[in-house]
Amino acid sequence: MSRSWVPRGVAFCEVKGDHATQGFTFILLPNLSMNAFSSAIEPLRVANQVSGKELFRWQCVSEDGQPVTCSNGVPLGVDGTLDDIPSDDTVLVCSGVLPEQTLSSRISNLIRQLWRKGQTVGGVCTGAYTLARAGILRGSTFTLHWENIPAFGELYPELEPAEQVFVFDKRIWTCAGGFAGTDMMVTHIHERFGRELAGTVANMCLYRTPRSEEEPQKASAAAAIGVRNAKLVQIIDYLEEHIAEDFNLDEVAYGFDISRRQMERLFKRYLSTSPRKHLMTMRLHRARALMSETNMSVTEVAAACGFISTSHFSKRFRDRFGTSPHRYSLTVD
């Protein structure tokens, strides 16, 4: 385990009584998100600092004990290997971009063993891929970053992630990456030590209002596209949820109690495009994500994203991204 670290600081929050130190081990995978990792570990450090007590201890390990490079190119040193994980630690797998390519059977097997022995385990950002490979997510509520949910669903169709900020369920902790690790840890600190310490930690992290477990990851469609027309937002949400289906846009409009012409005017006014073009853009970006994060063939991706043929998909993809799907998949690998 890493050295004790109770740094000095000005802010103080009294934590009365004696408390057993809780240990955390962060397993770092190649291409992990530094933002997600630091957001999860910093509240532990701040809790120790403001309380003046070693409430938490932590270490970082990698599969081979060597430094791990983050998705932003910054290398992170580690304290040891998988063999150095204490039997009472909470063990969190930290992942990031290209999660399928960084999966490790050894780490997945270890996570399964630790969980079955009674330890708490979890995943930060796309760490849920490792938990899924470990076979411990069936029947549990869990989450991962929204960008990776479509590809995850293609690989693990029997599992359904919740698009929440974080989840605590059955000794499995998961958070969506970004600043969700702070939300998760501040909530844990609140449950373990109370509101005052949790609030102090949040303030020290300049985190004004930590989000609750059930809150969605993304801003609403209205905020994302910068419009507040409820009908248009509902239609866009519907198209995204049924992206692989063969749409009859007249029927879509009818389902939202407007005419096809009215629907087209909404898209033109607020998005400067047509419903069909917007749907095509959504499908192409979904396809690009699947090819980035899965080993699906071009044909499989085309079908999963609602294209009528592989040739049609290839042409549209090249027009949008300036390269063919086949060439793009090679550059990703």
What does this protein look like?
The chain is of the alpha/beta class and 333 residues long. The chain folds into 2 domains: 22-204, 3-Layer(aba) Sandwich (Rossmann fold); 221-332, Arc Repressor Mutant, subunit A (Orthogonal Bundle). The chain has 14 helices and 8 strands. The strands form 2 sheets. A 6-stranded mixed sheet has the order 2-1-5-6-8-7, with helices on both faces. A two-stranded antiparallel ribbon has the order 3-4. Strand 1 (22-28), helix 1 and strand 2 (56-61) form a beta-alpha-beta unit. Helix 1 (34-51) packs across helix 6 (195-204), helix 5 runs antiparallel to helix 6 and helix 11 crosses helix 13.
Tell how many strands the DSSP assignment holds.
8
Our estimate of the beta-strand percent is 5-15%
Supply the CATH class of the largest domain: Alpha Beta
Tell me the CATH superfamily of the largest domain: Class I glutamine amidotransferase (GATase) domain
H/E element string? EHEEEEHEHHEEHHHHHHHHHH
State mean pLDDT (0 to 100 scale).
92
Overall body shape:
globular
Give Rg in angstroms: 22 Å
Could you say what the CATH architecture of the largest domain is? 3-Layer(aba) Sandwich
Provide the spatial order of strands within the biggest beta sheet: 2-1-5-6-8-7
Number of helices: 14
Distance between the termini: 35 Å
Structural class: alpha/beta
Low-confidence stretches: none
CATH topology of the largest domain: Rossmann fold
The main pleated sheet reads as: 6 strands, mixed
Counted up, domains total: 2
